[in-house]
Amino acid sequence: MSLTEQMTELARHAKTAAHQMTRLSTADKNVCLITMADAIETNAISIKEANAKDMETARGMDLSQPMLDRLLLDDTRIAGMAKGLREVAALPDPVGRVLDERNRPSGLKLKKIAAPIGVVVMIYESRPNVTADAAGLCFKSSNVTILRGGKEALHSNQIIARLMTEAGKSACDAFPPHAIQVVPTTDRAAIAELLSLTELVDLCIPRGGEGLIRAVADCSKVPVIKHYKGICSVYLDAEADAKKAIAITVNSKTHRPGVCNAMETLLVDKTAAPTLLPQVAEALRAKGVELRVDETGADILSEGITAATPTDWDTEFLDLICAVRVVDGVGGAIEHINTHGSGHTDSIVTENETTARRFQQEVDSSTVFWNASTRFSDGGEFGMGAEIGISTDKIGARGPMGLEELTTYKWIGEGDGLTRD
After folding, report:
1. Would you say domain 3-226+393-414 falls under CATH 3.40.605.10?
2. Which residues, including other chains, have CB under 8 Å from residue 134's CB and lie 6 or more apart?
3. In what order do the strands lie in the sheet with 144-148?
4. Burial class of residue 268 in the structure, from the number of CB atoms within 10 Å of its CB (0-12 exposed, 13-18 middle, 19+ buried)
5. Is the dihedral of CA 216, 220, 222, 223 positive or negative?
6. Which among 138, 164, 293, 353 would be 20 to 30 A from 97, CA to CA?
7. Where in the chain is the domain with CATH 3.40.309.10?
């Protein structure tokens, strides 16, 4: 079977499953999700064995330490996948929500209701926990998933999807056998083949580095929800509390430096910089962070730093590297972020509410925090149970995407023999 035929068959199975999904009740979906969670926990040893094979492959690919960290599945992360599925099961069903209701003078009764999108293709790198998160969210929202992870995570992705499918079948006779599928080949050409099937595939959501997302968006003929970069900034205002500033900055940068909501740029008000910047820099260096600092900041810190280059302001490092710039107040911070940021997540640290509200209003990003780490830009932290991605698009979904963002809508009309004059 050719690659074209293979991908077409995969997508046809998914389309059939999408029609079958509409027959499942909320109770059916919830029992399936809980059974899936149980299966993941029960088979933790098998998952770790599969993941060990992937880790060995990844080391041979000379992946960076943050990328290896994203790939690793330990007991905590496996438990987290199960917990996420149970949380999704506990959330309200997004399908069938009445979004609008109106009765027309003609006698026509109309309802606008939330409906599943259909066939969703997920393309992602490392992070095999995305397999459970994405499949679980799509299933609860009555969508089916075709999952295409990186070759470094193939064994992990396959066992997670298989366990979820087997659990779904055991929990509910109506479970569509192709509701969750993994692309069985690591051939990159499969992506273009799959995303050319506009009559079978409804949406693509890529998660990963900028190169992956641009490649997917460029080749896809189906709609793509994307974020190209996670260039997140933290701005320390003149009225920032030093203790909060240090804690938020360190957490934003070092909690998990290889993820898209990690801080990449630190901005410091010029009046606070002489006293605040050395304290923050010391805390970051203690965590092994390389500081790439502008001229003004370099005059203050003088040693243990690297001179920043113009490209540093536009770089998603995904590593223990931080660009540092001293700016002229909140206006300078806003200008920098709106010029160099990626519209993902930014945060201000200040005790001045007026300054904070101005920052939140004028920064053009999907999530803007006040006195909180950028790491909170996450579907789980937002109470979505899990997330299928974080969108920096402005049309459709924006920010962390949960169940509601995985639905479209349709109009339901009712008459009594109505005809139009």
Report:
1. yes
2. 120, 122, 124, 145, 147, 205, 388
3. 180-182, 144-148, 119-124, 203-207
4. buried
5. positive
6. 164
7. 232-376
Give the residue carrying structure tokens 């083949």.
Answer: 193
Q: Which amino acid, 63?
A: L
One-letter amino acid identity for 280? V
Residue 198 near residue 223, CB atoms below 8 Å: no
What CATH fold (topology level) applies to the domain 232-376? Answer: Aldehyde Dehydrogenase; Chain A, domain 2 (3.40.309)
Separation between Cα atoms, residue 31 and residue 26, nearest integer Å = 9
The structure's pTM equals 0.85
Which tokens go with 389? 């991605």
Fill in the amino acid letter for 410. K
User: What are the backbone angles phi and psi of residue 293, rounded to the nearest 5°?
Assistant: -115, 145
CATH 3.40.605.10, the chain: domain bounds: 3-226+393-414
Q: Using CA atoms, how far apart are residues 191 and 157, in angstroms rounded to an integer?
A: 16
Q: Which residue type does 40 have?
A: I
| Cα–Cα dist 102/43, whole Å | 50
What are the tokens at 124? 């992602």
Note down pLDDT in tens along the chain; length 421 residues: 899 999 999 999 999 999 999 999 999 999 999 999 999 999 999 999 999 999 999 999 988 887 888 899 999 999 999 999 999 999 999 999 999 999 999 999 999 999 999 999 999 988 899 999 999 999 999 999 999 998 999 999 999 999 999 999 999 999 999 999 999 998 999 999 999 999 999 999 998 778 888 999 999 999 999 877 899 999 999 999 999 999 999 999 999 998 899 999 999 999 999 999 999 999 999 999 999 999 999 999 988 899 999 999 999 999 999 999 999 999 999 999 999 999 999 999 999 999 999 999 999 999 999 999 999 999 889 987 677 888 998 888 899 998 999 999 999 999 999 999 8
